[in-house]
Design brief:
Number of strands: 22
Low-confidence stretches: none
CATH topology of the largest domain: Elongation Factor Tu (Ef-tu), domain 3
Mean pLDDT: 87
Helix content: 10-25%
Radius of gyration: 46 Å
Oligomer: single chain
Strand order of the largest sheet: 2-11-15-14-13-16
Number of domains: 4
Length: 386
């Protein structure tokens, strides 16, 4: 046989024999025990507690009281307080403006002189009435004479009252030549110059009080129930049930807080925003004695502390599933769906009022696939670390 054919056949036979030998002597695999993969989940332990329900809002700071400075007499401005400028500060009773009072002093002198004459005339008419009355009792004066003297006495008495009123008016006009501050506050604007003639009823500036500020806060209809106020509450809120309010504003990296209370609610809802506006009154000074007072016109955030509720459970929103359900882990580390009663949905949390017991474990991990009764490995987390 040709060697070119014989050698390949021999090599092929040897290869096949070797492959068969290896296949017959291959080791048999030993199967391992099957261990199912258990999902690790984060859980929190249910702890019922009492909490205050809060309502958040925002608004612009406005002064409690704002007044127009309007002189009640006319004249030339002869002195203006250095505080009577935009942003100027003053205390209650400080003089802000003086009007030339020469004419009003003269008017007071004339009124006092006329009063003196009226007093003299009244004394004379009273004595004359007594004298004629005595003569008439003795039949020495006629009834006509008595009537004339009595009429003169009445006229003198009326003239005396009129002149007394004129003196009082002159004193008031003289006092009105100096305009004083009715409260502690700041000047919003002024429009009067030294030597300017101001007329009665002319506005010369605007001032506002700084002891308290007010913030008009919009409150949604569904949030009103959390304030704990009687449904019949209108206008001024009784002092005993006024909800506390904390107002905050950021100045760079610093946040300042001011404490106050909700003092009244408006009588009707705003037709455009469907909001009911409440008014919070806040002290003008901030935390401590050296911090910044609450400035008018600033946009601030407010947190209104509402009613207190007992035995509620705070959960993160990640714990909620569809249809008001949560996932509870039983003592055997198996997962179960549970319907709960939701009291309130907040921005990041949920307040649950029923359906859970103290000590139970609630899953807060966002599982993509969850099956009733599935085995899990719970890892307890503290609520304050979420």
């Amino acid at each position: 046989m040709n060697k070119k054919i014989l050698y390949p056949i021999v090599v092929l036979v040897l290869g096949i024999g070797l492959a068969v030998l290896i296949a017959l002597n291959a080791p048999q695999p030993v199967p391992d025990d099957y261990e199912p993969l258990v999902t690790t989940v984060r859980v929190i332990e249910v702890t019922p507690q009492a909490e205050y329900l809060t309502v958040t809002s925002q608004g612009t700071v406005e002064p409690r009281s704002q007044s127009e400075l309007i002189p009640e007499v006319s004249g030339r401005a002869v002195w203006i307080s250095p505080s009577l400028v935009g942003g100027g500060s003053f205390r209650q009773g400080d003089a802000l403006l003086r009007i030339d009072d020469a004419d009003y002093r003269s008017a007071l002198v004339r009124a006092e002189a006329a009063l003196k004459r009226a007093e003299v005339e009244f004394d004379y008419a009273r004595d004359e009435l007594q004298r004629v009355q005595s003569l008439q009792d003795k039949k020495l004066a006629s009834q006509q004479q008595l009537d004339n003297v009595r009429r003169a006495s009445w006229v003198a008495e009326a003239n005396l009252s009129e002149n007394r009123a004129a003196v009082d008016q002159a004193k008031r006009d003289l006092g009105r030549t100096e305009i004083t501050a009715p409260f502690d506050g700041l000047v919003r604007n002024e429009h009067v110059d030294l030597g300017q003639f101001v007329t009665r009823g002319q506005s010369i500036g605007t001032i506002y009080a700084t002891d308290y500020m007010e913030v008009r806060l919009p409150i949604a209809a569904d949030q009103l129930v959390y304030l704990g106020l009687p449904v019949s509450t209108r206008g001024q809120i009784p002092e005993a049930i006024r909800p506390p309010v904390t107002v905050s504003a950021d100045f760079g990296n610093t946040r300042l807080l001011w404490e106050g209370e909700l003092i009244r609610g408006e009588a009707e809802f705003d037709a455009r925003s469907r909001m009911l506006y409440g008014v919070a009154r806040v002290r003008g000074d901030a935390n401590g004695n050296d911090t910044m007072p609450l400035p008018v016109g600033m946009f601030v955030h407010a947190e209104i502390r509402g009613r207190n509720v007992e035995d509620v459970i705070r959960l993160p929103r990640s714990a909620m599933r569809d249809n008001s359900q949560v996932m509870v882990i039983d003592p055997d580390n198996r997962l179960h769906f549970r319907h709960v009663s939701i009291l309130r949905l907040e921005h990041d949390d949920v307040l649950v009022s029923g359906g859970l017991e103290a000590g139970e474990l609630v899953c807060i991990s966002p599982l993509q696939t969850a099956v009733e009764g599935m085995q899990v490995k719970p890892v307890i987390e503290r609520i304050d670390t979420l």
